[in-house]
Amino acid sequence: MDHITNEKVKELARVNEPHSISIFLPTFRAGEEVNELMDRKHLKNLLKKVRYELESSQIKEREIKKLLNPIHKLMDNSGFWNFQSDGLAIFRNIDLFEYYTLPVLFDPAIYVSDHFYPLPLIPYINDEVQFYLLAISMGGVKFFEGFPHQIHEVEVKDLLPERLEEAVGYDFAEKHLNFRSGQDDRGRAIFHGHGIASQETTKIEILKYFRAINDGIMQILHDKKLPLIIAAVDYLVPIYREANDYKYLHPEFIPGNHQHDHPVLLHEKAKVLLKDFFEKDKKEKVAIFEQALSAGKASYSEEAIVPASINGRVDTLFVKKGVKMWGIYDRENDSIQIRDKGAANNTCLLNLAAMHTLLNKGKVYLTEGDDMPEPSSRLNALLRY
Questions:
Q1: Would 316 be classed as within a structural domain?
Q2: What does the alpha-carbon distance between residue 25 and residue 88 come to, in Å, rounded to a whole number?
Q3: Are 34 and 144 contained in the same domain?
Q4: Do 263 and 286 reside in the same domain of the chain?
């Protein structure tokens, strides 16, 4: 199971069942760590902590085995561990067993309570910010739909020429494409090896090829307003820009021939170029925090924000990443008590606030401490009223 949505997180947030187990661990896609079964060993260590939590709650041994048995079977499934991403999330209680392989690098964590702990999934369900990527070379075209944490190749066989010969004729490559190319000091393509006339002919034919690509791309993106990144060797980029009709072509590009690169590598390079784009909405919310605070439409009081989230008053919630806040919510008095972790009936109040914000159609950002609008607090909120 590898797909999780905003609605699925809300379903998990609504669960109220004793001995609900949430497990998060970072995983490896490939390499020595996979060969040495590091992911399985990591899960085994986390399961020991889960067992300790269950034993501490006086649950019977046969019930513990029943709860943990599906996770042990998953741990022993060697085929499953050969196809991991960056993180694994597991949710288990007596009625439910779900697991998600996700491109999110989780901090290792377990949580055992009468509810699940979906808070670490927030970055993934915030993945609605989209971009496009076009990898082009003389020998092929690949088109991708990308998000902050994932990328997918889009089937475009009927819309784009597969290679230059398809657009300009199969005899052209043999006659004209034995050349070396570069750029002048203004970024314009220059060609070497066949004389001025042949160089100009080569550029014209490449331009024809790129216009055919552009025509196909415009059928897909004609009504879009999202960035399109080009991945290509340097000298091809100015020619493609000349052919391009898409208004949101990104000013920067990924240099090199990437026809045979894994999409994950392209995704990592694209994320560097689009960092500000991905964080645009979040930064806009941070920027208005001080003004909203002075107008009574924001808060960094943890005691005020948790009840406000439960009552549907939170529009945007910033949760400090990497921390927890233990306590209880007193429904009768609409207040919270912040307590030590070991106190009876405790819950993570950060998770509680985040899940109620989502359930009340608000937005949640899991945020590094220095990026919080008010870093002294574990919760910051923009309020509806």
A1: yes
A2: 5
A3: no
A4: no
Query: Quick count: other Cβ atoms within 10 Å of Cβ 60?
Result: 10
H-assigned helices in the chain: 6-14, 32-35, 38-56, 61-75, 78-81, 122-125, 164-168, 170-176, 195-221, 237-243, 263-273, 275-278, 280-287, 289-294, 302-310, 349-359
Residue 146 amino acid letter: G
Other beta carbons less than 10 A from residue 209's beta carbon? 25
CB 373 within 8 A of CB 316: no
Report phi then psi at 275, rounded to 5: -55, -50
Q: Of how many residues is the chain composed? A: 385
Query: The tokens 């085995």 sit on which residue?
Result: 65
The CATH number of the domain holding residue 328 is 3.30.1330.30
- The parent domain of residue 181 ranges over 131-278
pLDDT 10s digit of each residue in the chain, 385 long? 557 888 999 999 999 999 999 999 999 988 887 778 899 999 999 999 999 999 998 899 999 999 999 999 999 998 899 889 899 999 999 999 999 999 889 999 999 999 999 999 998 988 778 999 999 998 889 999 999 988 999 988 778 887 676 666 655 545 444 444 555 554 445 555 455 546 666 888 899 999 999 999 999 999 999 999 999 999 999 999 999 999 999 999 999 999 889 999 999 999 999 999 999 999 999 999 999 999 999 999 999 999 999 999 999 999 999 999 999 999 999 999 999 987 888 999 999 999 999 999 999 999 999 999 999 999 999 999 9
- Whether the CB-CB separation of 319 and 378 falls below 8 Å is answered with yes
| Residue type at 234 in one-letter notation | D
Beta partners for residue 348, in sequence order: 326
Q: Please state, as a whole number, how many other Cβ atoms lie within 10 Å of the Cβ of residue 311.
A: 12
372 contacts 380 by C-beta, under 8 angstroms: yes
Q: Would you give the distance in Å from CA 40 to the centre of its chain?
A: 23
Residue 244 lies in a domain: yes
Are both 166 and 242 inside the same structural domain? yes
pTM above 0.70? Answer: yes
Buried b / exposed e over 126-142, threshold 16 CB at 10 Å, is: bbebebbbbbbbbeebb
User: How, if at all, do strands 87-93 and 96-102 pair?
Assistant: antiparallel
Residue 39 domain-assigned (yes or no): yes
Q: Are 142 and 135 in contact (CB under 8 A)?
A: yes
